[in-house]
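User: Batch of two.

Assistant: Item 1 of 2:
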Amino acid sequence: MKIYKENKIIFQNVKYFNGFGLMFKRKLKENEAVILKINKESRLKASVHMFFVFYSLCIIWLDKDKKVVDIKKVHPFQPLIAPRHPAIYIIECIKMPAINVGDVLNF
C-alpha cells in the first residue's frame, strides 16, 4: 500500500496493522510507514505510548475523512501521546513527511 498527498507519494511501503503498532518490532526504514485504525474517532483511543519502542517516531493522526488533525515527533518510553483532535487513523513513520495539519491523505 502507498500513502498519497495530492497524487504525490508520501510513503512507498505501508503496512496496515490491526491492534498493536511497532512495539518490539524492527525499526522502520525512511520510506516505510504503518497505519493503525481504531473503531471510532477519539482522542483517548487514538493515543499512543512509546513503551518498548526503542527509537523516535513521527505520529500522524487522521480523522474519518483522512484529514490530518495532528502531527508529533515522539521519543522512546514516552508514556502517553494523544492527538489534539479526535482521530480514527494513526500513521507511524520515521521521517517527518512534507505534510501539515489540514492536509488530506489517501491510501
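Item 2 of 2:
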Amino acid sequence: MNTLRLSVLAVALLFMGSILQSQELPKGAIQIFPESIKWVDAPSPLPPGSQIAVLEGNPKETGMFTMRVKLPPDYSIPIHLHPKEERVTVLEGAVYVGFGSFVDTAKAQKFTAGCFYVNPENKEHFVYTQSEGCIFQVTGMGPWGINYTEDF
C-alpha cells in the first residue's frame, strides 16, 4: 500500500511541476533561452560577415529594442555614428572600440566578456575584432541606425 501511495504522490508532483512550468507569462514578460536564438546575416548597413538576433522590439521602429550582434574574427566596422545612444554588453570574445574621425587602433579600448559600454549619440567611432571575434548585446531606443562618415 505504501508503494502505491508513493507512486501516486510522485505522479501528482510531476503533474504539478508541469503545470507550474507551463503557466502563461504576464503581459510584457520575455524569456529567451540560448538554444532558441535565431541568428541571421546582418542586413546592410553592417559590412558582410556579421550576424544579428533581435531579442525584443524592432531596431528600425520607435521604442526599446535589444539585439545580439556576432562579429567574426578580424572584422571591422568603419567610422560611423548612431542617431541615438546604444548600450553594449560584451557576452563572448573581445571587441575594440575607438572614438574619433580617423581609425587609430592605438587609442581603441578592448572590451572582453562581461564589459559594458555606452556609445553616445552622434559620436564618431570605429569597431573591430581580432582573432577571437565577438558576440555583444545592444540595447537602445529605436529607430537605430548606422551612419558612416565615409563610403567603404
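The radius of gyration is 22 Å.
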